[in-house]
Here is the input.
Amino acid sequence: MSDATLLDADAIATLEGVTTATLTTILLKKGLRNIWFRGAMPLRNGQERVVGPAFTFRFVPAREDLATPASWSSPISTRAAIEAMPEGAFAVIDAMGVPDAGVFGDILCARMIRRKAAGLVTDGVIRDLSGVLDTGLPVWCRGASAPPSVAGLTFVGWQETIGCGGVCVIPGDTIVADRDGAVVIPAAFLGEVLEEAVEQERMEGWIVSEVERGEKLPGLYPMNEETKARYQAWKDEQG
Amino acid sequence: MSDATLLDADAIATLEGVTTATLTTILLKKGLRNIWFRGAMPLRNGQERVVGPAFTFRFVPAREDLATPASWSSPISTRAAIEAMPEGAFAVIDAMGVPDAGVFGDILCARMIRRKAAGLVTDGVIRDLSGVLDTGLPVWCRGASAPPSVAGLTFVGWQETIGCGGVCVIPGDTIVADRDGAVVIPAAFLGEVLEEAVEQERMEGWIVSEVERGEKLPGLYPMNEETKARYQAWKDEQG
Amino acid sequence: MSDATLLDADAIATLEGVTTATLTTILLKKGLRNIWFRGAMPLRNGQERVVGPAFTFRFVPAREDLATPASWSSPISTRAAIEAMPEGAFAVIDAMGVPDAGVFGDILCARMIRRKAAGLVTDGVIRDLSGVLDTGLPVWCRGASAPPSVAGLTFVGWQETIGCGGVCVIPGDTIVADRDGAVVIPAAFLGEVLEEAVEQERMEGWIVSEVERGEKLPGLYPMNEETKARYQAWKDEQG
Amino acid sequence: MSDATLLDADAIATLEGVTTATLTTILLKKGLRNIWFRGAMPLRNGQERVVGPAFTFRFVPAREDLATPASWSSPISTRAAIEAMPEGAFAVIDAMGVPDAGVFGDILCARMIRRKAAGLVTDGVIRDLSGVLDTGLPVWCRGASAPPSVAGLTFVGWQETIGCGGVCVIPGDTIVADRDGAVVIPAAFLGEVLEEAVEQERMEGWIVSEVERGEKLPGLYPMNEETKARYQAWKDEQG
Amino acid sequence: MSDATLLDADAIATLEGVTTATLTTILLKKGLRNIWFRGAMPLRNGQERVVGPAFTFRFVPAREDLATPASWSSPISTRAAIEAMPEGAFAVIDAMGVPDAGVFGDILCARMIRRKAAGLVTDGVIRDLSGVLDTGLPVWCRGASAPPSVAGLTFVGWQETIGCGGVCVIPGDTIVADRDGAVVIPAAFLGEVLEEAVEQERMEGWIVSEVERGEKLPGLYPMNEETKARYQAWKDEQG
Amino acid sequence: MSDATLLDADAIATLEGVTTATLTTILLKKGLRNIWFRGAMPLRNGQERVVGPAFTFRFVPAREDLATPASWSSPISTRAAIEAMPEGAFAVIDAMGVPDAGVFGDILCARMIRRKAAGLVTDGVIRDLSGVLDTGLPVWCRGASAPPSVAGLTFVGWQETIGCGGVCVIPGDTIVADRDGAVVIPAAFLGEVLEEAVEQERMEGWIVSEVERGEKLPGLYPMNEETKARYQAWKDEQG
Here is the structure.
């Protein structure tokens, strides 16, 4: 399963045209069923699709002697982690699903925009909802809350293997997120996925147009032999 | 409790003017407390009310040897079930509350629109959110996810008695859904409900107008004898 | 911890300019971590901030011999409680988190508007969503459902100490609610909070503008000595 | 529904011979479905049945300025409440289902034994498990935890109407608890329940003996006319 | 995946010597991860292992017009289903995880013993705990409750494909249950599992004895080449 | 908060005489409310108290390409971690609360006994319940399940800061576990806790004896001035 495919600009452009629904179908056929982040939905209505390499953050539950406003100045802080993010990175934050302590607010999200982060996905919540929306950062999360992260969480490090929304993420895996939520493409699968994704999208688009023309589902989706021939003919026509 | 009332065009037109809130009040007075689908809320902002007879689908948890893309071609498939739906039917889908496997996506919803389905209610989630909204199918559900149904569910049949969102549904029961969610009217209660619903709505509308005029709640809602007389007088006036 | 500060018009005007995120930070520094109502989010998109003194309502689980439509006429009813609310009060309703029985619908909310209530926060749900939105009452809750309160809840009294969304509320505590949800300011802390809140907001606004100018986070947020001096200079300039 | 029946020594002796399973069946037939305390199971293996009038305690969530060890000396404390319990009372404690703060430990349970309390039921947990078992107090709860009540709860009063484990309890209602958990008999239903319970137990005992003799279930349970006659004959024989 | 292997007396005897832990390991290697019933644990301390073919029961949520004591006499009743069970069958009951309505009590369990049922597994609870233990029926469930099934559930049929504890079960699949809970062996996998199970148990027993002798884990479990040779030698010795 | 106190043999002997209930009370007075592992209860009835320094293990959710039986031979494996445990260490395992994948079975627990581990605490479950009990290893967990860890979890490392049961644990913190569950004493608090614990236990023991003599709670627990004097006299007598 070694795969030297890089998430370069071409790969990103390709994945921006592939729905997360299609990606989960492709990966399921390869045996990966657990790649969609539970509870992480787009914060903004009509959010566009975003793609980037995972840059991970890890929180653990708060303990009063560790999780204090003073800890925000520690060298191991979310601030330091953000400064370590390369351009285009997709922040993936393990908040252990905590619903009542916002991992980031408007100030940190504003800084991520300045550092050209691709987006942010977490199984927790953000805070300063209005301010975060104003920054323009694309965010997938469980919602918003007023309390700061230190009310329930302690930050422990970045760029480790983490669990987020019930999914395992290794730094450098590819994250794709759209209106159906966010998925991880493990690094070793990126090449195969890129090859199959475009054809899958094209085929599903053709099927929708057939349904709109009045075709019945059995034999069409999935395609039987006759439909496959008809689809092939359409593709040949398109050139 | 035999009740020969049919859900014909007149009954549908009547119920389109009755809120699900009013329906739960009426059925509660008849001893039915458990008729609202937990977790099934409208997918679209400002969704209009929809009415139709229940057409049931049943899923069980996935087992890897059964829940495969290959199963989509089986004679017992969601595709075959959709082709069996009569015009005007309201799909009710028992997804056992699973939040991370979309029961239907844009292709199946597009086909349901072509077959003139009234709507879809499930205690699970849909996928291809953008595509599903584009089809125009009215949907009540727990939200959206990217993974397909086979990632977590196996389809086992249609038109059986099912549980959905903690509610028992028998094929042919009436489903009414609006911005407060979806309710089932058991077949044996349809006639009585139709009789009482219109008067209940009229009365609640009059009470709201009284509150807006500045009336206090005690004596008004519920009505005491004096208020009842005043309401009767208003009704007599309206003719 | 005696504090004679009153929630007068000036205090309300001040708090209308302070986010709940800032309030949780200030109270956290004073040792209060548990003041944000879990599950109570704004019913309306873009809801403005609302401030008022808590007026509490308490429900317990339904028992069929107690929770009947007949109970709505009891002298201990939500109707009587609403009539007891002073102008400007913020209704706080302990619904024990029940998600499938709406505590109030359009009629009761319309009456609260007539009585000039500031708003309503509950760990339960409302019903008659369209009607409630039409009344204009600002509401923070877990969502909507069709069934009435008596389907799952029995009202037992008002102006008691309650738990709501995992938070303790004493009548007369101050409630502030905005797009990040709702928080309680215990009465004994109001004076201190008012003093610190405005400066905190001013400082955070200055930090956001610094981030937008391209400043890095470490040393800026939280501020080191050099940044503090720069911020002081800016404040002196503003006069 | 006025019912002057008192829970005197005779009534207690009768109920000590009736299972909670039988009591829920009898009350269900009278329309009461919600009388079993969710999550409150016997702490001790093989716990005997216990009966007594409900004496209620109410907790709300902790707030750091209120829930302190100092509060244990307040006049409104669990200690004062225990001293107010009459002999034979059954403590019913609304702990809002909190699983990680023990409402009572060995000292308070030892005092309840001295004051001849009948037992204790809560939707929360106890602490000092070994010590509590040593006191001999019969307890129904969700389990044990080490932290004290003030770690998560604030005590607010006693002998109020409360919710506990999803059930409404009014001081003076009858509590019966055994290996299947605990149930409340509303005061107004006590007389009827006493009348029917003994006959119901006798009948179920006879049915079990019939099953052991090899009788099939249909026609036996529930009984058809032929079986009823046979049962009547057996009762006549017994005299 | 056709597999003609039958669950005959030899197969049962073999499986009685194989832990459910071993079975899940074997099936995992074949790609089946979802075969263990969540929430169904042995009711009795030290319960022996039990094996039998699945005989399924299906409940849906209660609706007040259907779930009545009268329904117990319906031809579609749990009583009729029990009379249809062949000797040695293992009852698998889909109770949709409902924790507060006991699916079966002492009378039905006593009848199952008379009909020589192997055991009972459910994702719900039983009632009449003392009585059920007295019958001697081996039960795996979520616990006990006092209320009868009709308080929360309606029985709809038997010998259908069901979901139970998050697992898909088809009538005739093999059920094995012990102190680690219960698992399903899909019919098509029975032959392969029987072949591999005995060798797996033998190997794990030898590894435990090696650990007790002081061997380190790496190289031992899983075995490296040297350990495999040593194990083979031991097996050859045993003959 | 620097504290050079070591968990030496004397400290362990002292803590073996202090209940976790007392430890949570002492730490609460120092501001630490979140130190009890949610869901981790003793596996064995009547389990004795166990004390040791935390040795942490971290799992993340399974991903099919990572969580395989083959991974058990990886250099980063639970096997390698166990071999790295010093004598007397207390394994603390972050299983993210997963209830259906056993982190360790009998083989690994047998090896931990050989390596003289003090005990094991996890927010997940174990497997091979019978075998684990046979090893004699003291275990605190959420229960048992048949499936192996790879069915739901991937092991990622040891001796990191982790979250477990909602509690933050740093390697070297002290773990104390008894019948009320398990607590962590942060390293910086160990010295203070040792000083206060013995006196606290002595005082609570004296109070229990006073209650047994018939003393009322108010004034006794907590002690007023008169009681304090009486207690001091008793202590002076004891010498």
